[in-house]
């Protein structure tokens, strides 16, 4: 009876490890499916207050982008004590969509 208790604990530990590994694999697969088509995703530091380890962080996302500078340009004038970062993602696609919307609005 004494020999079976440690054996059972080892089996239980192995099973927990297997379940954790399976869970991590499943999570990784789901995440890869969601972001698998994203080619560009980057945070660009804005201003002088970045990399100071502050709790206040501001992530800024541009809506209409006609050139790569438009990811940062609208946010440069802000003056606060936050670490500010601009999200630059899928710039080619966003520039194409922004240009198409602008063309559509000005054609009417």
Automatic annotation (TrEMBL):
Subcellular location field: Membrane
Recorded coiled-coil stretches: none
Main location: membrane
Pfam families in UniProt: DUF726 (PF05277)
Entry membrane topology: Multi-pass membrane protein
Keywords: Membrane, Transmembrane, Transmembrane helix
Keyword Transmembrane part of the UniProt annotation: yes
Cellular component annotations (GO), alphabetically ordered: membrane
Superkingdom field: Eukaryota
Name of the protein: Transmembrane and coiled-coil domain-containing protein 4-like
């Amino acid at each position: 009876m004494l020999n079976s208790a440690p054996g059972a604990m080892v089996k239980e530990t192995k099973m927990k490890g297997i379940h954790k590994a399976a869970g991590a694999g499943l999570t990784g697969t789901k995440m890869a499916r969601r972001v698998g088509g994203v080619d560009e995703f980057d945070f660009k530091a804005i201003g002088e207050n970045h990399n100071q380890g502050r709790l206040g962080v501001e992530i800024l996302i541009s809506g209409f982008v006609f050139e790569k500078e438009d990811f940062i340009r609208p946010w440069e004038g802000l003056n606060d004590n936050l670490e500010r970062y601009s999200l630059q993602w899928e710039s080619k696609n966003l520039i194409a969509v922004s240009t198409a919307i602008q063309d559509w609005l000005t054609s009417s």
